[in-house]
Write a structure and sequence with these properties.
By secondary structure, the chain is mainly β. It contains one helix and 38 strands.
Length: about 270
């Protein structure tokens, strides 16, 4: 079994029990078993071994150059870029928004632009990540006339505006959901991952290409169990284009977040 949603696959092999989400593009690549690839990833000339977790918005490799290798049991966070010829070692963790230009050793944790080693990953070797159980709970994404894909329990006030090409997920029954209060404006091509819950206050404006992730994983266990981390955005907030908002973050009323910011803590 594998789930391949509305994506592009060319000259590539996909292993069993792998899940590739909406908007991703896979070219000249080999994907192992039990691999999760999030929304709107672009993967070129890459080998991904089994039991790898890849968050949304990642970009790997380049055609005509050395191959990217992602080793077993690694986790690459949201919007990570891996340059051509790089090998990511077994069990490595790459933080959200990192640009990886050099090889990463097994069980290293790397963050930053460019990526630098933060520390060694010390983890319980329980089991490698598996996604086959997640596939059994799969909820189909419905695309509306504005090309918005929605599988969330979404509460949106009738005075709010939702643009085009957005992806919104998260179920209340699993601890999540997305609430958008009155007068809020959500732009185009955003990803709202509401597994842990996302709240957007009144008259807040979200730009284009913004990525909010209200869940993470416990990297202290090899299996990378999911951790729910809600996001709360206050009233009259402005979030610029291309921002990444991670979980366990609260943004106070009337704040402005400049474009392409990575928000890791309360503001």
């Amino acid at each position: 079994m594998k789930i391949i949603e509305d994506i592009v696959i060319s000259d590539s092999d996909i292993g069993d029990y792998s899940w590739i989400r909406v908007g991703s593009e896979i070219y000249s690549s080999n994907i192992g078993q039990d691999v999760f690839i999030g929304f709107k990833c672009r993967i070129l000339n890459t080998t991904i071994e089994s039991n790898v977790q890849i968050a949304s918005g990642c970009v790997f490799g380049e055609n005509g150059k050395e191959r990217v290798i992602i080793k077993k049991g690694s986790w690459l966070g949201a919007d990570v870029v891996v340059k051509a010829g790089v090998t990511i070692g077994t069990g490595a963790v790459i933080g959200a928004g990192t640009i990886v230009e050099h090889n990463v050793k097994p069980y290293e944790i790397v963050i930053g632009k460019p990526g630098k080693v933060l520390k060694e990953r010390i983890c319980e070797k329980d089991e490698y990540p598996q996604f086959r159980n997640m596939l059994m709970r799969y909820s189909k994404l419905d695309k509306n006339s504005d090309n918005n894909y929605i599988s969330a329990d979404l509460e949106i006030d009738k005075t709010s505006v939702l643009g085009k090409g957005n992806i919104i997920v998260g179920k209340k029954a699993l601890g999540g959901g997305v609430i958008i209060e009155k007068g809020a404006v959500i732009g185009n091509d955003n990803i709202l991952e509401g597994a842990g819950g996302i709240y957007i206050g009144s008259y807040t404006r979200i730009g284009n290409g913004v990525h909010m992730i209200s869940n993470s994983h416990d990297y202290k266990k090899l299996s990378l169990p999911m951790v729910l981390q809600p996001i709360k955005i206050g009233k009259n907030v402005f979030i610029g284009d291309g921002c990444i908002i991670l979980g366990n973050v609260q943004i106070s009323d009337n704040k402005t977040i400049p474009e392409n910011s990575l928000v890791l803590k309360n503001i």
